[in-house]
Design brief:
- By secondary structure, this protein is of the alpha+beta class.
- Helix 3 (about 85-90) crosses helix 4, helix 23 packs across helix 24 and helix 24 crosses helix 26.
- The longest helix has 19 residues, at about 815-835.
- It starts with a helix and ends with a strand.
- The relative contact order is 0.11.
Length: about 950
């Protein structure tokens, strides 16, 4: 009876589906365990062998926890909104919802491409997902809840006093009773103070504008990464080297009115929460750096530009006016007397107001140039020094000295206030900037305020110096100087102590079609929320997915996209009268909207009313194990923690943190195949024949190269039309040998290996074991198909412990000590490995165990039945088949995991090396419980000892029980 993986795997995959073997219960008496994978974006390219790595690991763990008696929730779904589907729609004219559905379910798209389908590919690998809980973020029954969460955010503000989000009605009540003077909230800067009487006297639209400055999601003019080629705003993590990650289009900085989320309100809680979760230190550190907590002071410098260029900064709210000040956050207020110049970000709102006529052209040219550099690029480039003097000056708060104001792209508009007080004697970047522009108009001599030599560089330390040339701070150090400056700034109302965070509010608008529609319509330019009972607001049909001719987002092409407040439905845009029918929001939500709460929907995916019931949320609480890529450290993982904390504040989420334990799987890299074309020809030379020829290395399809690196020349010629007449210089054996290079697995490098092909040839259990065997889960490792045959051979050897050509050979013989030792070594090792996520060493132990049992000729049921259970999490199909053929009627998936018994590993005998004058001559096996005297008696009577001694009596017999025997003299 031979091992037939295709037949076995199809049988058990059907069994699991029919019997809902892996369906989790929402009210079980068993302890719960929630295991989650970062769900995939379903592209048409489908899965390659690198994608399932984390899924296999989480599946091994999920199956193991079921064996341990847990009620395991292990769901899967699709992050199905996103830019790739929209770009494909633009290129081919297909509807994104159609291509997304085909990418998930499989089929043929309108271009005639055969799409495997993510669902079918996942099923073939034998994952224990509870498919009844599948979610797709682009389905209206899912995104209606995303829209509902957006409405909750809009209707909330962050109360610093209670340190949580509260309903906006509580803020209105405070305004009505006492105005805003004593309200401690996270809000926009420079909100004018008003009394209760003033608030109650404001017109309704003025009140709404003020509330927008406090809401957790709000409209604001924001600096964004604008990609003209894609017609949309991009997040920082969607930009690589100043161009869009998708398509490679240029990206510029520009101001747009956007929806934003006040994630900054949660900065401290996001920081503190990291101490409560089991994540890698590298991911935690990434988030700490992104949040960027700094302790220092806010300082106000009054602008001294000519009156004709300085306009009082007046907010159009009827709330009064403010003088023009440059506000600076500094972590070193003690160095304030060393301020030599100031630098604003090129995008700073004051630049246009304060720049003098003489400097205007140069400033505008510089702004245009820097708009083409992403913030990430500007932050990373510490070598390039550039800037322009604005011609303006600001007044030092203590000396009243005029300080020149520059702009420079090393200052970012979104970090702090977008302005720095430059102290070159204490900061290397300021020092380099001052020296670079030394002697130019607007750059004074560097002021030195520390008792150190700064002729070669800045002194940036906080210890080991005294302040000089610093008026009332002379003789002080960092701590005393900081406290004194803050106190003096507060006296003159030009500063105060402050904790600042690098974390900026998250832009939440995208000028795209394929995303969640906002449940928002506009009355007199002010946003209004559609009542939750009318959700979802479904994405409308459009003729084309490009922006409109006048630059509006793609939803501007929709004919039916207006809100009727009487019919309470979406109606034709032609009916807009701004009386009863109003325009709807044209932007859509970003890709991270639907992925910021999806784990909660899995808990109660069939709930038609709520995103999840309170009872179910209380039962599952949070994710016990989350596995996914580290590239989401400062995107998805940060946004998810933010939304979870918000929902906790509002009484919906049961826990503060969504993911207790996080593991980042490493990447499986492709092993590319390279062919070598002699320059200027269509002749390809084998790698081992190159001898000084100038060649061009070209990627070839790895599927036409064998495990010995030999290219199938005929298939290569048929692969692409331009290679049809290619000629080949082969080696001495008549072979064309390719070069190899380990790099990211991608279609562009033709190094993609699909799991479908592996499963078809070797079976899913082989794929699962091999991916776990490649190396530690968290490390990157190259894929090498050549190694997979060894794992397949192991499974065939495992099978032969149970079956020969005539059928089942398992017997009821009593297991030997060696049998039990081999089994229990494996139980111990595999249990520890799974709990420590060291899956690769488990596979090694399986191989050792099967080899030992084969050598022992073990076919005992008492050994082979528990062995099937132990291997089941890794190779579930063969384990189910073995379990069934051993006469069991239930699935192996919930059978208790075998318990390790130490007694089977306790050695009762010891093989001693017997040495004469330090040289080992033979070995002898003796019971471990013998005394020294008994050991000596046995050894001395052994005929091999007598032969070595040849009649002599040893001077000394050295015996260490359990270790050595040495006869001396």
């Amino acid at each position: 009876m031979k091992y037939n993986p295709n037949e076995i795997e199809a049988k058990w995959q059907q069994y699991w589906a029919d019997n809902k073997t892996f369906a989790a219960k929402n009210d079980s008496d068993q302890p719960k365990h929630y295991v989650l994978d970062m769900f995939p974006y379903p592209s048409g390219a489908g899965l390659h062998v690198g994608h399932p790595l984390g899924y296999i690991a989480s599946d091994v763990y999920s199956r193991f926890k079921r064996h341990q008696g847990y009620n395991v929730l292990h769901p899967m779904g699709y992050d199905s909104f996103g830019l790739p589907a929209e770009q494909y729609a633009i290129q081919t004219g297909q509807r994104p919802e159609d291509t997304t559905r085909v990418n998930i379910d499989g089929g043929v798209d309108k271009e005639g491409n055969q799409i495997a389908g993510y669902r079918k590919q996942l099923d073939k690998i034998g994952f224990s997902f509870d498919w009844d809980r599948e979610v797709r973020t682009s389905n209206p029954d899912y995104y209606k809840h995303t829209q509902w969460i957006f409405i909750q955010l809009f209707n909330s503000w962050y109360n610093k006093t209670t340190d949580k989000a509260e309903d906006i009605s509580t803020l209105v009540a405070l305004f009505e009773e006492e105005g805003n003077t004593n309200v401690d909230a996270v809000c926009d800067d420079n909100i004018a103070a008003f009394s209760a009487d003033e608030w109650n006297a404001f017109a309704k639209d003025i009140q709404e504008k003020i509330l927008l400055q406090y809401r957790l999601t709000y409209l604001a003019e924001t600096e964004v990464n604008w990609c003209p080629g894609l017609g949309t705003v991009l997040a920082n993590d969607e930009i690589v080297n100043g161009v869009s990650e998708r398509g490679g289009f240029p990206v510029v900085r520009k101001k747009m009115t956007q929806w934003s989320m006040r994630i900054s309100a949660y900065a401290e809680r996001l920081l503190q929460g990291l101490d409560t979760i089991d994540w890698s230190e590298s991911i935690k550190e990434s988030q700490r750096n992104w949040i960027g907590k700094s302790v220092g002071a806010m300082v106000k410098f009054k602008v001294l530009s000519p009156e004709s260029l300085v306009q009082s900064k007046t907010e159009d709210l009827g709330l009064g006016t403010n003088d023009s000040f440059i506000e600076v956050f500094t972590t070193r207020p003690d160095t304030i007397f060393g301020v030599t110049f100031m630098t604003l970000a090129p995008e700073h709102e004051l630049v246009a107001q304060i720049t003098t006529a003489e400097q205007k052209a140069e400033v505008e040219a510089y702004i245009e140039k820097t708009a083409k550099r992403s913030e990430r690029e500007r932050m990373a480039d510490v070598k390039t020094i550039s800037g322009v003097f604005t011609g303006a000056y600001a007044e030092h708060p203590f000396t009243k000295e005029a300080i020149p104001v520059w702009i420079g792209d090393y200052v970012l508009a979104g970090y702090g206030t977008g302005a720095v007080m430059a102290v070159p004697c204490g900061d290397e970047r300021d020092y380099a900037f001052a020296n670079f522009f030394k002697g130019q108009n607007g750059m004074p001599e560097i002021k030195n305020i520390v008792d150190k030599d700064i002729s070669e560089g800045a002194y940036g330390g906080k210890e080991g110096f005294q302040l000089v040339n610093s008026d009332f701070l002379n003789g002080m150090g960092y701590k005393d100087g900081t406290q004194k400056v803050i106190a003096e700034l507060e006296k003159i109302n030009q500063g105060y102590g402050k904790i600042n965070y690098r974390l900026r509010d998250a832009v939440f608008s995208r000028q795209r079609y394929w995303g969640e529609p906002f449940p928002v319509y506009y009355v007199n330019g002010l946003p209004k929320m559609i009542d939750a009972q009318h959700l979802p607001i479904i994405l409308p049909e459009v003729e084309k997915y490009l922006p409109t001719e006048d630059g509006l987002p793609p939803l501007g092409n929709a004919a039916v996209w207006a809100w009727d407040i009487e019919k309470l439905s979406v109606v034709s845009c032609e009916l807009i009268d701004n009386v009863t029918v109003f325009p709807l929001e044209l932007n859509t939500m970003p890709g991270w909207a639907g992925s910021s709460w999806y784990w909660m929907r899995y808990m109660d995916a069939a709930n038609e009313k709520d995103f999840a019931s309170a009872e179910v949320l209380k039962y599952w609480e949070s994710v016990d194990l989350y596995i996914g890529g580290s590239e989401h450290a400062t995107g998805h993982l940060l946004y998810s923690r933010f939304w979870n904390k918000f929902l906790k504040d509002k009484g919906f989420a049961p826990t503060e943190e969504p993911f207790k334990k996080l593991i980042n799987q490493g990447m499986i890299l492709g092993t590319s195949a390279l062919v070598y074309r002699i320059e200027g020809t269509n002749t390809f030379i084998s790698k081992n024949k190159i001898n000084g020829e100038k060649v061009q290395a070209i990627h070839a399809d790895v599927n036409i190269v064998n495990a010995s690196d030999e290219l199938d020349v005929e298939k290569f010629k048929a692969w692409r039309e331009d290679y049809a007449d290619a000629e080949f210089i082969l080696d001495e054996n008549g072979k064309y040998i390719v070069g190899r290079e380990v790099e990211k697995m991608s279609k562009s490098k033709y190094n993609v290996v699909t799991p479908d092909a592996i499963c078809a040839e070797y079976g899913a259990d082989t794929l699962r074991l091999y991916e776990m065997f490649l190396g530690p889960l968290e490390q990157a490792k190259p894929w090498n198909t050549a190694g997979i045959s060894g794992v397949f051979g192991f499974l065939k050897k495992l099978w032969r412990l149970y079956f020969d050509d005539n059928g089942l050979i398992v017997n009821n013989d009593e297991p030997t000590k060696d049998n039990l030792k081999s089994l229990h070594k494996t139980i111990k090792k595999v249990t520890e490995d799974i709990e420590n996520f060291s899956f690769n060493t488990s596979v090694s132990q399986f191989m050792i165990c099967v080899n030992e049992l084969s050598t022992q000729n073990c076919h005992s049921r008492a050994i082979l039945e528990p062995l099937a259970i132990v291997i089941s999490p890794y190779a579930p199909h063969i384990a189910e088949e073995l379990w069934s053929l051993l006469g069991n009627t239930e699935s192996i998936s919930t059978v208790p995991f075998p318990v390790f018994e130490e007694k089977h590993l306790v050695e009762s005998e010891k093989e001693y090396p017997v040495s004469f004058n330090g040289k080992m001559r033979f070995t002898i096996t003796l019971p471990l419980d013998l005394t020294k005297e008994q050991i000596e008696e046995i050894v001395m009577k052994d005929e091999r000892t007598q032969k070595q001694l040849d009649g002599r009596t040893p001077n000394k017999v050295i015996i260490v029980p359990g270790k050595i025997i040495n006869l001396v003299g």
